[in-house]
Amino acid sequence: MLPETVIHDLHHVGINEQGEVALREALEERVETYTLIRLAPWPARRWKCRYRLMMGADFYDAQTPAEAYALALLALLKSAPGE
User: Fold this and answer.
1) Average pLDDT of the residues in 62-74
2) Which has the closest alpha carbon to 52: 73, 26, 34?
3) Which of 11, 14, 76, 82 falls between 20 and 30 A from 23, CA-CA?
4) pTM higher than 0.70, yes or no?
């Protein structure tokens, strides 16, 4: 489940899907490459996240893959020209 703030931000940019697959597909339509990493237990405790998505020089920490995809997608859409 995504945090309420992320759901609100997704709706604000016109994305109504909240499922992992739909968010991954939406991200893949907009970016050529990214890396999603499931963190080992000690970095997960240290950084207080379970997944890290790296895209270019940016990274997004999240508790679920869906949240990582959503955060990266939001960053792309908010930085797009005309947004």
Assistant:
1) 97
2) 34
3) 82
4) yes
pLDDT tens digit string along 1-30? 899 999 999 999 999 999 999 999 999 999
Phi-psi region of 31 (alpha: psi -120 to 50; beta: other; left: phi over 0): beta
Q: Output the CA angle 63-68-72, nearest 5 degrees.
A: 155
Please give the structure tokens belonging to residue 31.
Answer: 């970016």
